[in-house]
Every structure is written in structure tokens, then in C-alpha cells.
Amino acid sequence: MAIRPPILKAGDTIGIVTLGSPLDANIINARISTLRSMGFNVILGKYVYSYTGYLAGSDEERASDLMHMFLDTRVKAIIPTRGGVGVAGILPYLDFNLINRNPKIITGYSDVTVLLNALYQFSNLITFHSLLLIDFSNSTVPYNFNQFFAATSTIISPRRLENPPGIPLISRVMGNVTAPIVGGNLTSLVGTLGTPYEIDTKDKILFLEDVHEPINTIYRYINHLKLAGKFRDCVGILMGECTECSPQYGRTYEDLINDVIVPLGKPLMTNLRTGHGIYKMAIPIGAVVNLDTFNNTLTIMEPTVSL
């Protein structure tokens, strides 16, 4: 069983880090103001505002910020400012054993996907495919905040994961499986293949989503995962949105799912609203979930934080 990080409560301290691409300081400051208005204290990493081309400081600097947050006893949750590129570069500089002994909530999506899965695989820590700092804005829909706090600030179990009202989950291949869930951003996960941080899907439910990629490129990435045995090894598949993914050669994302994913024969649910779209379902990486496509339900079977 994976480690459940301590629960996030009102008045707790949140650590802010930039682990990939830089973010404008004015945006960072505005989002921090939102967190403070919610009643949280905020601590900033040393390199939060760094700007070195497409990265926010060196790999070592960004990794040191993250490690300091895990070691700071005041910090109860860690929120990266954004994803972008470069998060995988910090992985060789992390002490996964030390993180294992100092478990904390960490959340994000996009390029942060590689970190979330690595922390589960190497630190045995439940992590959260959920909000980044950039999402703590007045324009963010209430569903997203409700999802984030349901995952990080409650111990309700079992707990059903549901799309916003009027947006159904869609079961494509029938089955009923219970297993830990892994995955996230497809592009980022493909980038781990052949590295020490390659995603492990053995006996797991695999969740995928992506953004801004043409469908022929999505096919290439899906096929890469297939050739690497990731679909063979998993016990079920969840497909999220492919946000602003343009059709190519007359084929859409839905066509790709029907042509490539359905024939794999694994229990399959699609249309999850999470990741880069407007709505962001909070998915706890490493937690045990039940995927029941006979009844079209997705249920977290255990608390994802501890008291």
C-alpha cells in the first residue's frame, strides 16, 4: 500500500516551487494571493522566479527547491507553479528515500506527470494529478477546487470520481478491475521510456491525457507505449481529454480511441475531464481505484491522505 501524505487543513503552509518552465512573476504573485485569501500560509522556493530560457534555473537548482520543501516541517503541501518542459531533468537529483520518510501532498499535471509517477514508484507516495499554482485563480471553475480539496483535505472512502454534471463518463470495453492508478500526460510519459524513470504499468490502471498535439502524433505516442508493453502490462485504461488536439488525415481523437485503444481489449473508460481542459478531476496517482465499466463507475477505494 502506498503512503498517504498528511491531510491539508485550513491555515496550513503550502510550498511553491517552479520545477520546469518559468512563469511570469506577476502571475505567480497573483496566484499566491489567491492561496492566502483561502487561508493558507505560503513559502516560496529559492528559484521560483528564476528564468533561464525555457527553464526556471538549472536542474540541480529546481531539484534543491523541491527537496527543501519536503524537508521543511512547516510545509504540508507542495504546489508547482506550472509544468512546461524540464521536470524530468530534476529526477536524478532527488533523494527518493528521504522523500519516503517525509511524505507530503504534491500536486500538478502536464510535465509534472513524470514527477508524480516517479514519486509513487520510488518513494511509494500517493501524489495528485490535480491543480498547479497557475490554476488558483478567480476564473477557475468551482469543480476544480472541489476536486482538489476532496482529494487532499478529506478521508472519505470509498469515493466516487465523477465528471461535472452533464458530462458523462463513457465505458467502451466492459470489465471490472481494482488496482493502483498511474499515468497522466501522454507526451511526458513517453519521454520516460528507456530511462530509469520509465513508468511501471504492471497490474496498474493506466490513465492518459494530452494537449496541443495533432492526432497523428498522438497515434505515434500511443503506439510507442504499446510497443514498450505498457498496455500489455496494465489491467485497465482511462482516457482523458486530448485538449485542442487537431484532427489529421480525417481522423479524430475519438477515431484513434476506437481504432487503437478499444482493440486492446482492456476495460476502458473515456471522456474523463482532467488535465489541460477547463475541468480538472483530481486523480490520486498510486491510490487503489475500482474501474467498473459494467456500471460506468470510477471509485477511489481508500483515503488518499492521512490524519
TrEMBL record:
InterPro entries noted in UniProt: Carboxypeptidase_A_C_sf (IPR027461), Class_I_gatase-like (IPR029062), LdcA_N (IPR027478), Peptidase_S66_N (IPR040449), Peptidase_S66C (IPR040921), S66_fam (IPR003507)
Molecular function via GO: carboxypeptidase activity; serine-type peptidase activity
Domain LD-carboxypeptidase C-terminal: 179-291
Keyword Hydrolase: yes
GO biological process: proteolysis
Residue ranges annotated for the LD-carboxypeptidase N-terminal domain, each copy included: 14-129
Keyword annotations of the record: Carboxypeptidase, Hydrolase, Protease, Serine protease
Keyword Cell inner membrane: no
Record-listed E.C. numbers: 3.4.16.-
One Pfam family from the record: Peptidase_S66C
Active site feature: S110, E209, H276
Protein family according to the UniProt entry: Belongs to the peptidase S66 family.
UniProt-recorded name of the protein: Putative murein peptide carboxypeptidase
Gene: ykfA_1
